[in-house]
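Structural prep section.
Before we set up the soaks we want a predicted structure of the protein with iron/sulfur cluster in place, mainly to decide which crystallisation condition to try first. Input record follows.
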Amino acid sequence: MSAETLKIDKASGLGATSGTALKALMARACAVRLAHWGHTVTYSRKVFVPLTNMCRDTCTYCSFVKTPDDPAANYMTPEQVLATARQGEAAGCKELLFSLGERPELRYPEAAAALEKLGYATTNEYLRAMCALVLAKTTLLPHVNAGTLTDAEIDMLKPVSASMGMMLETVSRRLTRKGMPHHACPDKTPVQRLRTLERAGQRGVPFTTGLLIGIGETWAERVESLAAINAAHARHGHVQEVIIQNFQQKPGIGMADHPEPSLNDMLRTLAVARLMLAPEISLQAPPNLSVRHAEYLKAGMNDWGGISPVTVDFINPDHAWPQIDELARATANAGLQLQERLTIYPDFLKRPDRFMDPSLTARIKDMARPDGLARVQCLGAST
Ligand code: SF4
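Run finished without errors. Recording the tokens verbatim:
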């Protein structure tokens, strides 16, 4: 890790930075980006597969989750998974992102019954089978976003996924109290999420994590969350990217009236994240959650995350993904260049023994050009 990364005590004092001081902070963050990432801003062309929208947790900001009494609650069938995957493949996607609720079968008999009908005892076993199906039948690389995982589950999923992810969101235990967004959410206890982050490192998984901004956490808790991610990465070198995602109001959620984070709050968080995290950790701000592309680029981020040319983002269906060529234009206007990456970042391709399952190594390397980015670059909505 760079000796110059911003330390937690200094970062804790930056929560009200604004005006000229904020601009200076953002300029420092951009200097770190330039030194490590050059003028390249990346994205991953991916197709989304929401394997199940049932979940045993009840985060009050979530609009994805459905309880079994909702007619829209479901598990996708293998046929549906494959049909969506093929649509993505035809549109030039390289990644298939499995997003899903956490362990619904432990809370809802209906979910357990639906899984049994599919022939599986747990959601994560079904997930493994669907990753294997995608690998067998398409050219896509699965990335799994399955939330908290045990050692055995990580071992089960690593041979069938090129990378994994779980938003840490926050290390605040305060937010698990009654009336708070993570109350009665067993998978949102910070210790459980930190354990998964640690296990992924111990088991050599290229890992995506991040913070959810504006759900009631304090600035100090936000800085502590960044420090926890950085510490795990310092131990294991496995954090490939950190997402800084802003809470958004949506009708019907428990937090429908909760204020969204301001632009300045996002900019100072992005800049501080860039300065606190090891420079080799990619800093991502999802473009579907904001129209503030130019400003985010000025705060030091270097990745737009997953962009789908074919499906809506099932986590935030109200926010259409911008067309990829529009994003390329916005990036170029900032003096930067959009490039397509794979779900596994270039640095991790250099250490296949640690970060790739042997069964996937040849496939991943074949999809990468010498610098580790996608060999076939799709830089427009229709290319
Ligand atoms: S764990 Fe994820 S899917 Fe489940 S309720 Fe929370 S945000 Fe929604």
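Observations: Strands lie at 40-52, 95-100, 141-145, 163-165, 207-213, 239-246, 282-284, 303-307, 337-341.
Flagged for discussion at group meeting.
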